[in-house]
């Protein structure tokens, strides 16, 4: 059985949209410092931080279970404040044939933004 679809999540964050975008596009290895209960580590495997084509591995916890996701940064759009990741390995690939994650920041007032995650499976 093959599942296809799209799932979106949006959360308000007390940081500028530019900073949120910068962390996901150029410094994802800092996310484990910001949310250690959910993200244990983000490792660089190939390429350079902040560049399309870079391969990274996320170590995270989902439903109390430690998991990993190996991803390639497909695109970084500084004008739209978005970063597109394609999952190429790890636990997600056992459930879904293909998965893309688009992280986008939308400014909301001074010093805050909406961070949206768009999962395409």
UniProtKB/TrEMBL annotation:
Transmembrane segments: none annotated. One of its GO terms (biological process) is defense response. InterPro entries: Bet_v_I/MLP, MLP-like_ligand-binding, START-like_dom_sf. Residues 2-121 form the Bet v I/Major latex protein domain. It comes from the Eukaryota. PANTHER family: MLP-LIKE PROTEIN 423. This is Bet v I/Major latex protein domain-containing protein. It comes from Salix udensis. The lineage of its organism: Eukaryota, Viridiplantae, Streptophyta, Embryophyta, Tracheophyta.
